[in-house]
Design brief:
Layout (H helix, E strand, L loop, with lengths): L2 E8 L3 E9 L3 E10 L3 E2 L5 E2 L2 H15 L3 H6 L6 E8 L5 E3 L18 H7 L5 E2 L2 E2 H11 L9 H11 L1 H4 L4 E3 L1 H10 L4 E2 H6 L3 E2 L6 E2 L1 H7 L9 E2 L4 E4 L2 H7 L6 E3 L2 E2 H9 L7 E5 L3 E7 L4 E2 L4 E5 L6 E7 L3 H12 L3 H7 L6 H7 L3 H9 L10 E3 L17 E3 L7 H24 L7 E5 L6 H11 L2 E5 L5 H14 L14 E5 L6 H26 L1
Parallel strand pairs: 1-6, 6-17, 11-14, 18-25, 25-26
Antiparallel strand pairs: 1-2, 2-3, 4-5, 7-10, 8-9, 12-13, 15-16, 18-19, 19-22, 20-21, 21-22, 23-24, 26-27
Helix pairs in contact: 3-5, 11-18, 12-16, 16-17
Length: 539
Amino acid sequence: MGVYVIAYDIGTTGVKTCLFEIENEIKLLADATMEYNLYILDNGGAEQDTEEWWEAMCVTTKSLFKDKTVKKLKIKPNDIAGISFCSQMQGLVVVDREGNALRRPMSYMDQRAKEEIKKGIAHGIQIAGANIFKLLPYLYYTGAVSSSVKDPIWKYKWIEANEPEIYAKIYRWLDVKEYLISRCTDKFIMTQDSAFSALLYDTRKGHEGWSKQVCKIVDVNYDHLPPIIKSTDKVGGLTAKAAEELGLVPDIPVFGGGGDASLIGVGAGAVKPGATHIYSGTSGWVSTVVEKQKVDGSAMIAAIVGAQADRYNYFAELETSGKCLYWAREHLVLDEIDAYCEKYHVAETRENFEARYTSLYDYLSEVIDTAPAGANGVIFTPWLHGNRCPFEDPNAAGMFFNITIDTGKTDMLRAVVEGVCFHKRWMLEAQERKVKTSDVIRFVGGGALSPVTSQILADVLGRTVETVDSPQNVGAVGAAACIAVGLGIINDIDEVAAYIPATKTYYPNPDNKAVYDRNFAVFKTLYYNNKKAFKALNG
């Protein structure tokens, strides 16, 4: 019998609470989900509610013990050996001395602090959107700079400027999971990766920690920042109050965990230097583990602090990855359900059709697999919310290119998947300019549930692609790995890969290489050939 742990995956729209058994593998036994709200404000604000987060945690934790597998194994709350978190990052939760949230948390999506960033860093002579006299010392200490209106610093400064009565009561600045950890333990901490994403973290060897110099540059009160710990460190034991509300028992060890960008790679088993994983959720990325900080400003790629000591994730992000498939489902699939049912004499409603396919993405995969590689020359660009890497342009948009009178919807659906994969190849090749990426790629996220998508990715990249069990839950797996290291079950995160074996392997089909190389070459020209048009329409 192994060790049982609970990991909370705190997303933008809901929590997924997972119960794992750790023995020879990190095995998912049960999970439960619950949604909560994201409040979008007219002034560019995006907020959430701490009580909704906590309620979702309490409801889902209790429901785990009602699961058939858990009941069969007779797992009880007092069998839980540890708790940890994988979470959305770059939120801002300001609390008083008792840990009470002083206002609703500001999501990473919040972009109301336009005046604050302008006053704070985006004035005078600029490089990459930052004042040159602040940029250079800032980079010296952190290896990164806070030049986006969405960064936590400017949310904090917005509160100072617009809600001074709340600012005066601030005791600690926390991120999302750090607030929930404080709710569990009554302790205030921040993990290294969260501190780095706050862009106030000194990354210099021997100086790791909050940077007083950078706090002065951006005028942040250093005393508001909590102590920094490792992702695998124990914060404390579950309090009696929290245990009662969660349906657990007191004193269960609570560990630091990490952000999604840190722990998804861990949960993928891509932990050793040179290991590359590709993630396809709502957004997507290509990430390679490196031992030194690296930046490619021309391609908007940087090495960020992760969950491992002396390791960085060389990180290239695509704003809309799986979101493109969601768009295709809503606009190219669902509106045709009735026609599909009529054509094949299927006497069922849209709702029944969706039920028959556990997910309509299953139907989508079936349809895509009937179209030839290269989608009969149709190319889709996945920039449905602008783009960040390897070019940054908020005006860039999606398009279907090379549609003819013979083009069918099936070609368009396949082109959507291929377009997302083409962009991942573009980011992978951009990474290759600075680092050596791995020959075998771990593919995770909801997109990796589809064998068709996984094979297309292997063919487009020309590399072997591996998937793992429950690829949509790898963030929670990464949090469970932090518990395992913290409890001494696993020596360190470098050994986690042995506990996360590949379950399926996809080899590139050489017959598809020529058509994908041709289409990829065209794909890369579409942005530069249409850059001015995007600006004219969307600027």
